[in-house]
Amino acid sequence: MQIYDLIGIGFGPSNIALAVTLEEKKQAGYHIDAFFIEKQPEFAWHANMMLDNSHMQVSFLKDLATLRNPASYFTFINYLHQKKRLQDFINLKTFFPSRHEFNDYLAWAASHFDDSCAYGEEVIEVLPEKSGNEVMYLRVRSRDRNNTLHERLTRSLAVGIGGKPRIPDCFLALKDDNRIFHSNDYLRRIREFSNVEKIAVVGGGQSAAEIFMDLHGRFNRTKVDLIMRARSIRPSDDSPFVNEIFNADFTDFVFNSTEQERSSLLGEFWHTNYAAPDLVLIEQIFNVFYQQKVVDSNRHRFLRRHEVRRADSLSQGIQFTLHNLNDDCDFSATYDAVVLATGYHRDHFQALLSPLMPFFKTLSVDRNYRLSATSQFKPAIFLQGACESSHGLSDTLLSVTAIRASEITEALISSLNQIKPSVTARAVSSLIA
User: Fold this and answer.
1) Which of 64, 75, 134, 364 has the most CB atoms within 10 Å of its CB?
2) How far is CA 63 from the centre of its chain?
């Protein structure tokens, strides 16, 4: 059995950026044998939120490589050059390409690593492989679409599996009701409800705002309730000084702060990333409700300062018990479909790594995103996109992707230099046997 230097779980932007960095290290004389496993059948990035006219909220310069190496082949600028669209893009006079185009850029970059990525395989567990009292390797077990089990050995691991849809507690008991679905599944599912009378969108962020506007234009007669706890839809603050919190050097500041200081920073700047749509989108929503007043229509409702206290599955629809926070009263509303634009949580890597938990003192990471482990545990495990509490709000965004890949690569090289010489032929042969 081949022993890889690194296996990456997931092949989204974070691990693609890592693959790019490792490829450029090969050109500099460092040969790191890496392989990636992706559960989707082919590359796709937020495929079910590729809405018409949706655009990036992050500058194209924060791509897979530019901030690390502006001369890289894998920059967004070179992608445009290779696609013969560079001059036309310049004429757009924007830093924010469409989401469709950035997805195509990521797919273009990913395609260069088809030989080192297994698509359509889901990693089901990661097991320790011991040599004496020490764990020298990890056995990564995955299952493909034909239910065939695959096993691979590796000296290190990069976990970049993105977020898992966050489902509010009141909806958990209705997880099998196909009339309720998360924004992560929006485009795939919404076609089933083209003839319904009433849809609820729960959430106050960019996804909720985009979905509301999409439903407004997609269905002519369907009524839509936009439901959120906030009093108003607050715009994302992308002013220059605030945007400095997404700079790579701010990660050092956050990581070196005390736990209390980090918590304060996350709270102060929370609305730069969460529950904060683009101002243009907010203005479009306001205009929808204004035009309703002009024509005396009540097609859509903006139920601000409302909470969903209870959701019940009935034959005639999904019945909400809504609490109006303004006057402290409850009322009921029934919907034919419910879209939960309620965000994601990033801690589901813990279940994947549960067989390794005895070797972790805590689930804390060092500055280079490596999980802290006991001395007898030799493989390096890096987390991508799961370190917001220690590294700051930029951790789940594209902003630091290129720089983070470089930092992980340097830490990986250091780790491999320490463990490779200690691997004896006897230890390797015992594992293969």
Assistant:
1) 64
2) 15
How many Å apart are CA 285 and CA 308, to the nearest integer? 21
**Domain count for the chain:** 2
Select from 315, 340, 365 the last residue of a domain: 340
Would you state the structure tokens that stand for residue 70, as one six-digit string? 């502006």
The CATH number given to whatever domain includes residue 10 is 3.50.50.60
Structure token digits, residue 395: 């951790």
pTM: 0.93
pLDDT tens column, 111-122? 999 999 999 999
Across the range 374-380, mean pLDDT stands at 96
Element housing 37 (H / E): strand 34-38
DSSP per-residue letters across 256-310 = TS-HHHHHHHHHHTGGGTSS---HHHHHHHHHHHHHHHHTT--SSEEETTEEEEE
What does the alpha-carbon distance between residue 99 and residue 390 come to, in Å, rounded to a whole number? 29
Query: Cβ(273)–Cβ(393) under 8 Å?
Result: yes
Q: Is residue 101 part of a domain?
A: yes
310: which 2 tokens? 């209870």
How many alpha carbons lie under 13 Å from residue 348 in its C-beta half-sphere? 14
Q: Within a domain: residue 9?
A: yes
Give pLDDT tens digits for 56-81: 999 999 999 999 999 999 999 999 99
φ and ψ at 330, to 5 degrees?
-110, 150
